[in-house]
Model the fold of this input.
Amino acid sequence: MPLSFLRLTEVDPDRITAHMRDPRLRAHMPLLPATWDDAATHAFIEAKEATWQRDGLGHWAFVHDGDYLGWGGFQKEGDEWDFGLVLSPDHFGAGQRIARACLARAVQDLRIPYVTFLLPPSRTRLAALHRLGAEELSPVTYAGETFRKFRLDTTG
Done:
């Protein structure tokens, strides 16, 4: 069975709650709240669904053979489309495959001439981004945290 792109509303919210509570995520998600509960999951899903309504694009849940792998996708930040990917630690190895599948969709979407990636300084393994052709820009501060910013052209 191939990789499925589902809306977050199509996944059992308990799976998302368990995923977001995994302490291994905190190392690379400085904006993750200290506690995550069912209410946080419902607010998260609502916020991500609002981007679909506003922009016609948003975040998906990734599922393979019925197994929830994580979530990610595109979110418009000002004039830029930011790409994020948050996988369950047990599925970190699927990141490259999922990112390439998502980015292939961006290439087909004429609204997206490029995507940006914001990574916390704790992310030091960047070979995959470099292989994709992403260029590093100046660091940015978002919600009081500093992130490394990358840009990938999708028109080429």
